[in-house]
Amino acid sequence: MGVPVLILGPSGSGKTYSLRNIPANKYGLIECEKTMLPFRGGVKFARTKDFGELRSIIKAYSERYNIVVVDDFGYCVTDLFIHHINDRDQYGIYKTIAAEVYNTIEFINALPENVIVFITMHTDSDAFNNIIPKIMGKMVNEKIDLLGMVNVCILSEVVDGEHVFIIDGKPPAKSCGIFSESVIPNDLAVVEKGIRDFIGGE
User: Fold this and answer.
1) Cys-Cys crosslink for 100: which of 34, 51, 111, 183, Cβ 3.0 to 4.6 Å?
2) What is the residue range of 19's domain?
3) How many domains is the chain partitioned into structurally?
4) pLDDT, tens digit (0-9, with 9 covering 90-100), for 139-166
């Protein structure tokens, strides 16, 4: 099965910047909003906010690369919400969003086992001030548990002026024992190597 990995953090925390050390010919990038990478020498990318197109592009990329990056998944949620904002059945918007998010993660799970899909998202907080993915309100979070659908969730933060990845020790960060450290460099190449060493395969 494919490996979905959540990379959560506010703007400027280094979510996209963490791609800089993965060779441009080694991954497929899908931009859901931005059109400029924060480092030189990046790859050309596909761009969509449509969930159906997103899954099709992920599938196409997975047949060529074993790394796919979706940046920023939250904009697909926002776009779907805006396109249905005038619907008579407002509750139906959230059911549709929940279904699309759930189906996308399940789609990634069904990919070949050597494919890692990094999914970046902005962060939000719930009523108890817990960090959660920004996914358009608690009604969607009540329908699906996105954090529960992945084994690896990384927090991208700036600590003492340095961009880092928090792997453990600060919920919802988790790595299923893949990493022994709780904080690692802001580098998706390091994350990819750790996952592949853990699950085996190239």
Assistant:
1) 51
2) 1-41+53-67+79-114
3) 1
4) 676 778 888 899 999 999 999 889 999 9
